[in-house]
Automatic annotation (TrEMBL):
Source species, domain of life: Bacteria
PANTHER family tied to this protein: DEHYDROGENASE-RELATED, PHYTOENE DEHYDROGENASE
Name under which the protein is recorded: Phytoene dehydrogenase-related protein
Stored Pfam families: NAD_binding_8
Matches recorded under SUPFAM superfamilies: FAD/NAD(P)-binding domain (SSF51905)
Organism: Cyclobacterium lianum
């Protein structure tokens, strides 16, 4: 390739695309390189089961895409992005047959919670009311906050283990709803700062919803890519970068890669200290994922669950706490916490007329090749008798398959590294800027940098801003 670019971005996940857009908008000539034939990273949609059934390969529901500060500044609707908002954001059935749910309305959610109504409103109303001011601080690297007083009140609770914060609630249903949210952190609920995950997801839901994307998550990747190209950016697919000689000359290189793969490609350029730091970066639990083609909607016992875009299965807080602890210890749960989405109920483009899709996963030990199909099916069947009879096609990914699909997901870790207290702000290494590597004008912008996992693009945004400041 004889073209010299100002910047090259390696990897086209939400952070790579975001970094490329920020750099291009600043006036740089940017090339984005993607190893696969299609862009998107975790934002891809494929016919995994049967022809005509569209399944999101990784990300499926996008609260942070809707509520995050960066994507809102881009005219993505003009490039085909359409959010679809389910009537109920998330439902959580309990063993006694009742269901508790997260709604867009803070007060509608709180009204279900009996003795906890006041406590729930007191916890979340300040965060929801000030989300516009706080989100840039919450979804950022460690820095002097723009809103220190408001952020401080959030931080006091966010740093607590989710099991500790659950003591605010008296009702079993409230504690279960809270546990299902906190368990998105893919670590034991007793870990410090697991409350941050639950608080951010619930507040984002009350602020911007938990939408799915019409046509699948690939549509978000395509909208970002089409906007990037419209402002002059260039994209090259089908070029899996394995060494630096494949990267054209440029003023800077931005890597949307895990520390492990960054070391493989560019480790020879880095200092011994930085290599040591990247080698110490810790990856978390994996996932086992299933996609279903269905002859009918999931036959939930509860009407509420038939209106929910997302369903959390796993029982009470105590049940989910036990399950996540077992998996963290390298064991398996017979009652796994299962995250399920049913996009075709709300998006008719996902399946042929009269048919439906479902998307589900549970957590497993890192690198697991154990088939968890039976456990996931039993968990769904418990609350939707007859579900198994409605399956006309299915597809599975174990943790090794997940990593093979996306090399950034080491051991099947879709958060690209444990997001515990020791790696929230220091991912992937303790440095003045987490996005700078030890080699001048090489940057890392993946989900292994702050603020971590999720489809929000903020790692790429902040990495690009850092690179621009260094260059100019």
């Amino acid at each position: 390739m004889d073209t010299t670019y100002d910047a090259v971005v390696v990897g086209s996940g939400p952070n790579g695309l975001s970094a490329a857009i920020v750099l291009q908008k600043h006036g740089l000539n940017v090339l984005l390189i993607e190893g696969k034939e299609t862009i998107g990273g975790g934002m891809r949609t494929m016919e995994l089961t049967l022809p005509g059934f569209k399944h999101d390969v990784c990300s499926a529901i996008h609260p942070m895409a809707a509520a995050g500060p960066f994507f809102k500044t881009l005219p993505l609707a003009q490039y085909g992005l359409e959010f679809i908002h389910p009537k109920t954001l998330a439902g959580h059935p309990l063993p006694d047959g009742t269901v508790v749910s997260l709604h867009r309305s803070l007060f509608e959610t709180a009204d279900q919670l009996g003795r906890d109504t006041k406590s729930y409103i007191e916890l979340f109303k300040p965060l929801v009311d000030h989300w516009d001011a706080l989100s840039a601080d919450i979804l950022s690297p460690l820095k002097i906050p723009d809103n220190p007083i408001k952020l401080g009140s959030f931080g006091i609770n966010a740093l607590k283990p989710s099991t500790y914060l659950a003591q605010k609630f008296k009702e079993t249903r409230t504690r279960a709803l809270w546990a299902g949210m906190a368990a998105h952190g893919i670590q034991p609920l007793t870990n410090i700062a697991t409350s941050a995950i639950g608080m951010v997801l619930m507040a984002a839901g009350h602020y911007g919803g938990w939408p799915m994307i019409k046509g699948g998550s690939q549509s978000l990747a395509d909208a970002l890519a089409n906007y990037f190209k419209a402002i002059g950016g260039k994209i090259e697919t089908g070029n899996m970068i394995t060494n630096l000689s494949q990267i054209p000359d440029s003023r800077l290189v931005m890597f949307d890669l895990s520390p492990k793969h960054l070391l493989k490609i560019a480790g020879e350029k880095f200092s011994k200290l930085y290599c040591w730091q990247l080698n110490r970066f810790r990856y978390g639990m994996g996932v086992f994922k299933m996609d279903f083609a269905l002859s009918q909607p999931i036959p939930w016992k509860s009407e509420m669950l038939r209106q929910a875009g997302t369903v959390h299965l796993g029982g009470t807080l105590e049940d989910i706490k036990k399950s996540e602890k077992l998996i963290w210890e390298g064991k398996y749960s017979q009652n796994p916490y299962v995250l399920l989405s049913q996009q075709s109920l709300f998006d008719k483009t996902r399946s042929p007329d009269g048919y439906h899709t479902a998307w589900a996963y549970c957590h497993v030990p890192s690198g697991s090749e154990v088939d968890m199909s039976g456990s996931i099916l039993s968990q769904i069947e418990k609350y939707a008798p007859g579900f198994k009879d409605s399956i006309i096609g299915k597809h599975t990914f174990n943790s090794r398959d997940i990593e093979n699909y996306n090399p950034n997901y080491i051991g099947g870790d879709i958060n690209a590294g444990v997001q515990d207290w020791s790696q929230i702000f220091t991912r992937p290494a303790l440095r003045i800027s987490p996005y700078r590597t030890s080699f001048k004008n090489f940057y890392i912008c993946s989900a292994s940098t702050p603020p971590g996992g999720g489809v929000h693009g903020m790692g790429g945004y902040y990495a690009a801003k850092r690179a621009i400041k260094d260059l100019f």
